[in-house]
Specification:
This is Tricarboxylate transport protein TctC. By secondary structure, the protein is of the alpha/beta class. Helices cover 44% and strands 19% of the residues. Strands 1, 2, 3, 4, 5, 6, 7, 8 and 9 form a nine-stranded mixed β-sheet that branches. Helix 3 crosses helix 10 and helix 5 crosses helix 12. The N terminus is likely disordered. The chain binds aspartic acid (ASP).
């Protein structure tokens, strides 16, 4: 470096100017890992892979997705909470980040204070789906079968704390009948069991069920949001199907370990915002029944506010249901 430049930089550094500028330019210098706390091939995995690819283009580095499934998403979350807070290990999780702090009275990490928020990503409708030969063609008929068959029916989910668990709880509460729950490390493997008819029913995000519903390989009875989904226009809402209280949508957010420097959080958040404007990502999200969040929700502050409010929202519901994982 020419002498003059170094002297100029040192002077700027002494004035407190050089360090942040250099720091921002320096990150990231290598591959970033994003942990998905569910198995590959499922809906959280799909959202993460699309987001990671687009973020990588903005960051000029590869963003690699790693699946750490199990225990309703808490194993993957724990891995990230315990990682170095340097921006190179991230977590893309869903609504489970709001339910686990109440569902699990003991967790191997601080479920509320163990993370920095980077930004919200998307909110995805869920669908109630069944194996192809399930003896019902509407939500009302499915409810009648559930009432009649009860625990003879196998309901697949991704473990306690998963969105499919939560959705199943809402369904069983609304119907007033329990089914036998069969947990998987994610709904990617669970949907394979549904396709082969080894389990009967499941709730899952449209990001994992749209193609199989369209091809007729599984049955779908309703979408769990207030409005119908454009990509599956014939599917009634829970309310239209007669179960208005069976409503939930699955939000996803990007996290970093507690203590990740603020400028790195901001850099990642900017990359997330850019990714969520990416035409290819927006088109694929739309085809799978979802859309990126508004840009002002893909920020650390908006994400933290929303997450904390959602913990408070689910706490009394879970406590009233008496549902705990431990
Ligand atoms: N959809 C799953 C859930 O029930 C998770 C996944 O595999 O993405 O939470």
């Amino acid at each position: 470096m020419p002498q003059i430049t170094r002297r100029a930089l040192m002077a700027a550094g002494a004035a407190g100017l050089a360090a942040p500028a250099l720091g921002q330019g320096a990150f990231p210098t290598r591959t970033i890992n994003v942990i998905v706390p569910f198995a590959a091939g499922g809906p959280t995995d799909t959202v993460t892979r699309l987001t990671a690819e687009a973020m990588g283009r903005d960051l000029g580095q590869t963003v690699v997705v790693e699946n750490v499934g199990g225990a309703g998403g808490t194993l993957g979350a724990a891995r990230v909470a315990q990682a170095r807070p340097d921006g190179y290990t991230l977590l893309l999780h869903h609504i489970g980040m709001a339910t686990a702090p109440t569902l699990y009275r003991r967790l191997p990490y601080d479920a509320v204070n163990g993370f920095e928020t980077i930004g919200l990503v998307t909110e995805v409708p869920m669908t109630l789906v069944a194996k192809k030969d399930f003896p019902a063609t509407s939500l009302a008929e499915a409810v009648a079968v559930i009432k009649r068959e009860g625990d003879k029916l196998n309901y697949a989910n991704a473990g306690i704390g998963a969105a499919s668990h939560l959705c199943g709880l809402l369904l069983m509460k609304a119907v007033g009948t329990a089914m036998t729950t069969v947990p998987f490390r994610g709904t990617g493997p669970a949907i394979q069991e549904l396709l082969s008819g080894r389990v009967d029913l499941m709730c899952d995000q449209t990001t994992n069920t749209t193609e199989q519903i369209r091809s007729g390989d599984i049955k779908a009875f309703n979408v769990t949001t207030a409005e119908r989904v454009q990509s599956l226009p014939n599917l009634p809402t829970s309310k239209e199907g007669g179960l208005p209280e069976f409503e939930v949508s699955v939000w996803h957010g990007l996290y970093a370990p507690k203590g990740t420097p603020a400028e790195i959080q901001q850099r990642l958040s900017r990359a997330l915002q850019t990714a969520l404007r990416d035409e290819k990502l927006v088109a694929r999200f739309a085809d799978l029944g979802t859309a990126p969040v508004a840009q002002d929700r893909a920020t650390p502050e908006a994400h933290r506010r929303f997450w904390q409010a959602d913990i408070a929202k689910w706490k009394p519901i879970i406590q009233a249901a008496g549902q705990f994982a431990d």
